[in-house]
Structure formats: structure tokens, C-alpha cells
Amino acid sequence: MDGRFSGDALRVASIPYNQVYIRHLEAVEGERPTRVRRLPDPHPAGGSRFTQSGWWPPAMLSAQWVAQHHTDFDLMHVHFGFDAVSPADLAALIDELRRHGKPLVYTAHDLRNPHHRDPQAHDAQLDLLVPAADRVITLTQGAATEIRRRWGVDAIVLPHPHVVDFPTMERLQGRRLRMGTGPEPPSASPPFRIGVHLKSLRENMDPGIVEPLAAAVSGLGPAELVVNLHREVLDPGSTDYRADLDALLRGGHADGRWVLDVHDYYDERAFFGYLASLDVSVLPYRFGTHSGWLEACRDVGTSVIAPSCGHYRDQHPSVVEYAHDERGLDAASLRDAVHLLYRHRPWPAPSVAERKAQRRDLAAEHERLYEAVLASRSVDAVQG
Predict the structure, then answer these.
(1) What pTM did the predictor assign?
(2) Is residue 176 domain-shared with residue 296, that is, in the same domain?
(3) What is the pLDDT of residues 133-145, one digit of tens each?
(4) How many domains are contained in the chain?
(5) 198 within 8 A of 227, measured Cβ to Cβ
(6) 250-297 confidence digits (pLDDT tens)
(7) Cα–Cα distance for residue pair 329/206, rounded to 1 Å
(8) Rounded Cα–Cα distance for residues 354 and 314 (Å)
(9) What is the mean pLDDT of residues 127-137?
(10) Torsion region of 328: left, alpha or beta (phi above 0 gives left; psi -120 to 50 gives alpha)
(11) Can you tell me the distance from the alpha carbon of 343 to that of 123, in angstroms, rounded to the nearest whole number?
């Protein structure tokens, strides 16, 4: 793999690169680029495991890859993917980076892995990554406070960039304005739409939210609850089939308590369109940290009700919180959140211009951070 770039580019082994958060750390298309050049993702180690993540599992996350390609990059920046790496192999990777004088930057997206019921494995990986990193970045002040408490490390807080591309954002925001669904109370037609998407029931998803959410919606005027789910969960021929959930969800749909939408994974266009069709999206998480889903909702002007676990509320003041964590769900707080947003949408969507300005700032901040890390490592090398 040829990872060399011309000029005085800052060559970053980004893990991964082809993921929306990382791609949107680049300069805005058509504007002056920064010096940052992120290496393209190598072919996944052992072949791609998920079609939704063509970079998985990441080949760069190995001491062997660093040994073979250390002349191709100036620093490594880890975001996602290390859940596929054992603590021993992660320690070997860190040692190999140090052997070649390559700084490590880590962005702490997940302080609790949403795919792991037991946090022990993820904690062991964070216990290596966070203290070893030359710089730690995170997305919210709440997460930075937790990082300081757990590891004694001061993390840099940089917000989540936009998720929806700018032309689509402009189109979907414009459609919402034309439909008259601004910050005013909802009119009699169309009905106020509240959505909860259970996806494929990953470990932090709580399907028990559906009935209390339906009860909250039933106390409103013209409103409907839309429950989304990936097809395999209600397919009797699938290993992921949930007979109990099948009976509950199809029964509630038949009774008119909610609209059930069972489908395959959305492509990007369908996903953004689905979010824009809602007035409110409810995050049904029992544990977690941050959410790109939340940011996509903001991009298209959909309000968000988020659980009290993690640091979702810290992502933006517009997020309305309800009490929900591994100890359980408080139905009264969920009802209050739904009714609040039915009466009053508290925050407009960020404009395309605002999201572009934020992206410029993020691109510049990452460029400065990489320059500072490399300058510090150079000084250490001279003094050493």
C-alpha cells in the first residue's frame, strides 16, 4: 500500500477512514483543504464482516501492520474497531507505535460499548488506549469529566459533526418548513409522529420501551407512534427471531396502538428520509455514550428524546432527556418528555451554514492538534 503524500501533508493512519464521522472531519468540499491526509482503509483483516462497515475489522490495528507501514504515516488516530482486538494485541500495537516514534491520538466515542452487555472487555481496552494516547479527544464535557475521573487524563472536547450530507440536509429541512412543522404546536393534520427504531436489538436496546411509549402517545391528540425493526428479528427462519416480540409488536399494530414497520437495513437515502418523516425520535438505550443517530436527527430537524444513561443529553441543549438505564425505565419521565415536545419543539435544526462552519472548525482543530502532537514528539526525540 502506498500511503505517501506529496508536500508537507500530515499523514494520518485513521482507524477507520470510510465512516461518516471521520469523513466529516475533512474540510468542506470545494473549500481550501487542510494539510491532513488520512490514509484510505486497507482491505479488512480476514475479509469484511459486515456489509454496512466495509472497513471492518480494521487491518491497521495490528503491530504487524505498523511494522510494515510505519514509513507511510506520521501518526495514528483510533476511533472505532478495536473491539475486534485483544488487550494483548492492542498492547503490542501501542509498543510498535512507540518503537517507531509514531504518536497515537484516540477519540473516545464509546466509554461503554453499546454492543456489549458486560463492559469488562471494553474497559480493558480503554485502560490501555486512554493512558497510552498522546492526545485524547471526546465529544462532550460529560464524557471528558468521566475520562478525567477514571484515568486522570484531560480529554479535548470536540463536538460531533453533521451526519447528513449538505444537499440532503438542505432539501429535507426545506421540505419540513414547507409542511409547516416548525417550532409551533402540531396542527390537526398531519398527525404528530413519534418514532422508535429497535434496529436488530443490539445489547443496549430495550424493546420494553414500546408499551410505555404507546401509553404516552395515547394521551395526546392527533399523534401516532411508529415502531421500526429490522426484518430478521421477526423472521421465524432467522437465528435472531424473537417470538415474544413478534406477538407483542404485531398485536399492538393490529390493535392500532402503533404502526409497525419491519424492513431490511436502510440505505443512506432511506434512513435520512425516515428520520425526516418523524417529529420526534426516541432513543431506546439502556447504556451507551454518544449517538450519531442523534446528530442525524438534528440535521433534518427531528427532535430527540434520549435516555439519562451515557452523555447523550450533553451533545446538544435541544435533546430532551428521560430516565432510562440498566436499572430500568421511568415511564413518567418518558411521558413528560413526549408531552413536552408535543406542546413545544424547543430548538430549530442547525442550518446548513452552521453545520458547515462547525465542520471548518473541526477540520482546523484536528490539523492543529496533529501538528502539536508531532511537534511535541519531535522535541521529545531530540531531548531523549
Answers:
(1) 0.93
(2) yes
(3) 999 999 999 999 9
(4) 2
(5) yes
(6) 999 999 999 999 999 999 999 999 999 999 999 999 999 999 999 999
(7) 9
(8) 19
(9) 98
(10) left
(11) 41
